[in-house]
Amino acid sequence: MGSSALRLRENWQRNGGANATIAEHTFYEVFSKSFIGTNYRVRPKPIEFNKIYTTVELSEKTLSEIYNPEGRIDRHGISPDYAISNIVTGKTLYVEVKRQDGWVENKPRSAGRGNAHERSCKYFTPGLLAILQEKGKIAAPALPFWTVFQGDTARDPCRVREITCWYAEYTAHFFFWRDNTNANPILDHFAEKLSPLLD
Description:
Blueprint lengths: L2 H13 L11 H8 L5 E5 L15 H6 L16 E5 L5 E8 L16 H4 L6 H11 L8 E6 L6 H11 L6 E3 L7 H15 L1
Parallel strand pairs: 3-4, 4-5
Antiparallel strand pairs: 1-2, 2-3
């Protein structure tokens, strides 16, 4: 384990209090406390992309075939759950946290019918990927996003296989946080696999 992973763990244990490993924790709580005294910051609901679709140019033919409301559409975009930035380098990684029901013990297979995990795949689309890379200052082939899966979907045998297939070799860019009473695995994953992208 690298020294940055150990520092994040130590920060979490010191700033998370005596009960840091007993109760369930949120992504924001874990990272905001772990980043104290570091060059990293975590922001909830970054707004820099909430208008990105408003400027997409359409051909005259397309415009003639779709509904065109009066006035300008002034808000149409995306809102990642979090942004993790290095305040020295100015680089930013955008984070989605996906939690949904799934097929686990004592539940029917139909419990895994949600599609939150599928919606995470929009970040792989060429246009959105280019926008995130430019804004986050993270160049290809690295991805400028990280998806954290929680809850049953992180243990559902079908969903875990789908996600693993979709992300393929980009294993650094997704994480199954199966036990959110334990912050160490997610902090280690970030420190070892993602923090180098921000440095």
